[in-house]
Amino acid sequence: MNQSIEKQSDMSIFGDPHARMERALDDLRQGKGVLVVDDEDRENEGDLIFSAENLTNEQMAMLIRDCSGIVCLCLTDEKATELDLPPMVADNTSSMGTGFTVTIEAKVGVTTGVSAADRVTTVKTAIADDAKPSDLARPGHVFPLRARPGGVLERRGHTEGTVDLMRLAGFQPAGVLCEVTNPDGTMARLPELIEYAKTHHMVVISIEDIVAYRMAMKQAAE
């Protein structure tokens, strides 16, 4: 069976692409998480995503416990520039071109910076409307990612998908993500992600779903 057809068939338990997107946006507005899978020819992984605006200590603990532990904060290009967050390396040779910046830590309100509560404090400090570069120490335990201005229509990555989802849900364009792993430390693939979603009453959507949703909105506005 073709991988794309098989993928859509597996995800159809959450509805068609439009229905999945509507549920994902509604869940985000209710403060819940969403699972996002990318294309098979990219990372072929699923990320657990929460809005940065409504992030709780419990959700951060879930990201640390059930995922890889490398919790990333997806920011717009403008916000990353405002916070003076340079690229992690001068020459990004990552196969996916992920926009990692230097890591960060809140200067106030944290201890070692590694606990769930401390990481939430760092996230909330970074996304504050009046946040300044001087509010953040470098390096730290939160990994900011700089999204491309065009979102998933420019780059079909989890970073852009996260920022697009937050915009579509009516939140600040900032979210946190982490790659879901299996208990044995291997990366969770679609079958495991679907089971995880059912266990935690979440929906699984794809980057392709976000692209289609945005394209439909764009066409409707023309």
Automatic annotation (TrEMBL):
GO terms for cellular component: cytosol. Its cofactor is Mg(2+); Mn(2+). Pathway: Cofactor biosynthesis; riboflavin biosynthesis; 2-hydroxy-3-oxobutyl phosphate from D-ribulose 5-phosphate: step 1/1. GO terms for molecular function: 3,4-dihydroxy-2-butanone-4-phosphate synthase activity; magnesium ion binding; manganese ion binding. Mg(2+) 2 binds at residues 43, 158. It holds the Pfam family DHBP_synthase. SUPFAM superfamilies: YrdC/RibB. InterPro entries: DHBP_synth_RibB-like_a/b_dom (IPR017945), DHBP_synthase_RibB (IPR000422). It is an enzyme of class 4 (lyase). The record marks 141, 179 as: Essential for catalytic activity. Mg(2+) 1 binds at residue 43. It catalyses: D-ribulose 5-phosphate = (2S)-2-hydroxy-3-oxobutyl phosphate + formate + H(+). Binds 2 divalent metal cations per subunit. Magnesium or manganese. Its EC number is 4.1.99.12. D-ribulose 5-phosphate binds at residues 42-43, 47, 155-159. Keywords: Lyase, Magnesium, Manganese, Metal-binding, Riboflavin biosynthesis. One of its GO terms (biological process) is riboflavin biosynthetic process. Belongs to the DHBP synthase family. PANTHER family: 3,4-DIHYDROXY-2-BUTANONE 4-PHOSPHATE SYNTHASE, GTP CYCLOHYDROLASE II-RELATED. NCBIfam families: ribB. Catalyzes the conversion of D-ribulose 5-phosphate to formate and 3,4-dihydroxy-2-butanone 4-phosphate. Homodimer. HAMAP family: RibB. This is 3,4-dihydroxy-2-butanone 4-phosphate synthase.
